[in-house]
Amino acid sequence: MRVVAAMSGGVDSAVAAARMLAAGHEVVGVHLALSRSAATLRESARGCCTIEDAGDARRVADVLGIPFYVWDLADRFERDVIADFTAEYAAGRTPNPCLRCNEKIKFAALLDKALALGFDAVATGHYAQVVERPDGLGGVQRELHRAVDPAKDQSYVLGVLDAEQLAHAFFPLGDTVKTQVREEAAERGFYVARKPDSHDICFIPDGDTRGWLGRRLGEAPGDIVDTSGEVLGRHAGAFAYTVGQRRGLALSRPAADGQPRYVVEVRPDSNQVVVGTADLLGVDLVTGTHARWCGPAPEGEVRVGAQVRAHGEEFPATATAGTGPDGDEVVVRLDSRIRGVAPGQSVVLYDGTRVVGSATITASRLQRSPA
């Protein structure tokens, strides 16, 4: 196969490219330029896609002896990821930009361009597995599964891939733990073998999401209130808060019962942040839209595992797809209450280790009374 290896400049994508080459594929390395003003140096382990990263990726490609290109997708990234991220927070929701990047950039813009140029697939350094099974029609069906290394598993952020995208995707690291990847990189003589992992949001390298949003959206002072409407403090912008947040509330006085308080709702229309006790965060019914299925959409009510955070716990649940006026709604009924589910997050559904699909959370509530 002719394969585009997406090379971020980190150790994972370097080893992924090497493994695709060793498997006999014709590999071309591509680094995505996603920033309109990339910094020359990263800040510690934060961020990615800098000029330094492009140079690291090129050095790996030189060691492997494969062609290497930089594709400028900065405008597309700004529109589909950064602007979406900003708009979601402004609307009182909590998005996951990594899912949107995988859906819109790596497995849409990048994959579409690769296929148009005559390539067969895109390979990345994500920790997930693709399993092929007979489809009953003489062909194979590709399934997305969790990685063998639970600490590095990234199947959650890949839950937005549909069956067509999955048919052209390779994740060579899914059967490997991170220490083995670094050892392999060192054995191959890659300079990036000990390079720190990037983390947090790549376009906010200092990790200050609140400050970044404030610069993009401007200050919008408003009230922090309790569930009865009593004003407990002030904020500089409701967009800087998310459901389940406890720190940084700067309330004027403690609760009468001494219990800690959390954000339980963000109201962009009135520019209010509502706080309450932890028991108000528990929900057992989640509704989502923008359903994305990694294979055939489930029919009727099915048993699933539900995960609402990238490295969060999976919870037993029942899901029903195809609901709502447009048939694009998914209703997830959890067996037990979970806390801190915010609109804008994604719920990813599993059948064992297999990723069934995902939806963007629009609402959550407590359906059953606490025991």
Automatic annotation (TrEMBL):
CDD domains: MnmA_TRMU-like. It catalyses: S-sulfanyl-L-cysteinyl-[protein] + uridine(34) in tRNA + AH2 + ATP = 2-thiouridine(34) in tRNA + L-cysteinyl-[protein] + A + AMP + diphosphate + H(+). Residues 212-276 form the tRNA-specific 2-thiouridylase MnmA-like central domain. ATP binds at residues 6-13, 32, 125. Residues 152-154 are annotated as: Interaction with tRNA. The keyword tRNA processing applies. One of its GO terms (molecular function) is tRNA binding. Its EC number is 2.8.1.13. Its main location: cytoplasm. InterPro entries: MnmA-like (IPR004506), MnmA-like_C (IPR046885), MnmA-like_central (IPR046884), MnmA-like_central_sf (IPR023382), Rossmann-like_a/b/a_fold (IPR014729). The active site is at residues 101, 202. Keywords: ATP-binding, Cytoplasm, Disulfide bond, Methyltransferase, Nucleotide-binding, RNA-binding, Transferase, tRNA processing, tRNA-binding. It is found in: Cytoplasm. Residues 286-361 form the tRNA-specific 2-thiouridylase MnmA-like C-terminal domain. SUPFAM superfamilies: Adenine nucleotide alpha hydrolases-like. Pfam families: tRNA_Me_trans, tRNA_Me_trans_C, tRNA_Me_trans_M. Belongs to the MnmA/TRMU family. Catalyzes the 2-thiolation of uridine at the wobble position (U34) of tRNA, leading to the formation of s(2)U34. This is tRNA-specific 2-thiouridylase MnmA. The gene is mnmA.
